[in-house]
Amino acid sequence: MIFNKDTAEKTAELLLQINAIKLNPENPFTWASGWKSPIYCDNRLILSFPSIRNYVRDEFAKNIEKQFGKPDVIAGVATGAIGIGILVAESLGLPFVYVRPEAKKHGRQNQVEGFLQKGQNVVVVEDLISTGNSSLLAVEALRNEGANIKGMAAIFTYGFGVAQENFKNANIDLFTLSNYENLLDLAVQKQYITEDQQSTLQEWSESPSTWLQEK
Q1: 126 labelled as ligand-binding?
Q2: Which residue ranges form the domains of the chain, and what is each CATH number?
Q3: Does residue 104 have a known ligand-binding role?
Q4: Coiled-coil intervals in this record (predicted)?
Q5: Are strands 29-30 and 36-37 parallel, antiparallel or unpaired?
Q6: Contact residues for 77 (Cβ-Cβ < 8 A; gap 6+)
Q7: Where are the alpha helices (DSSP H) in 69-214?
Q8: Which helix (H) or strand (E) holds 21?
Q9: Percent of the chain with pLDDT over 90
Q10: CA distances from 77 to 26, 81, 96, 105, 181 (A)
């Protein structure tokens, strides 16, 4: 669920402007999973544009507090959400921790890095939601440390049905600055894509794991 329509449209426009999101239905990208995709999203680029990263930081800070109340800690999911998570924590005057994909094999063998006390209220910041699996593994790691997860806030989601089901099953409320639906509407409006290309992009979102394989 998006925080609000205005933020969703503005965020989508900014991501397109800096090529953090690329739309190329004629020459699809190949994801690490092997899926063919007409869209590629790299929200790490946001950090290289001060005015845009500040916008994202401010929207996160404002809407996190409005939606979840002020938490005790902000947690970022490594590695994509560490940078923006720190900025959000700084804006809210809160401690920050980050969650590795898995525990280290040496030293203290931490998966959650930083100081976290049992019972603290945590909002998790993520850069991108696809299936939600990796994001929810971070939630599980935080819960294992005794954290009370208030919810998750992400920059962008593809809006896959499997992700919605995964978050529902994990009992985690997910809110995003923007999403696939608003992105496509904005992309047509601003002539980044044609209406025919929009149809292709919508078709992909309905069955991303098998798109092109069925043809």
Answers
A1: yes
A2: 5-199 (3.40.50.2020)
A3: yes
A4: none
A5: antiparallel
A6: 85, 98, 99, 124, 125, 126, 127, 134, 135, 138
A7: 82-92, 133-144, 161-169, 180-189, 195-206
A8: strand 21-23
A9: 89
A10: 32, 5, 11, 18, 24
Average pLDDT over residues 30-53: 94
Is 178 known as a binding-site position? no
Alpha helix positions (H), the chain: 5-17, 50-68, 82-92, 133-144, 161-169, 180-189, 195-206
Residue 44, marked binder: no
Nearest to 154 by CA among 171, 137, 130, 186: 130
Q: Is 171 annotated as belonging to a binding site?
A: no
Is 91 part of any known ligand binding site?
A: no
| Measured torsion, CA atoms of residues 22, 207, 159, 147, in degrees rounded to the nearest 10 | -110
Q: Which helix (H) or strand (E) is 73 found in, with range?
A: strand 73-77
> What is the 3-state secondary structure of 198-215?
HHHHHHHHHCCCCCCCCC
Instruction: Please indicate if the annotation marks 100 as binding a ligand.
Output: yes
Phi/psi at 2 (nearest 5 deg)? -80, 155
pLDDT in tens, 128-171: 999 999 999 999 999 999 999 999 999 999 999 999 999 999 99
130 labeled binding residue: yes
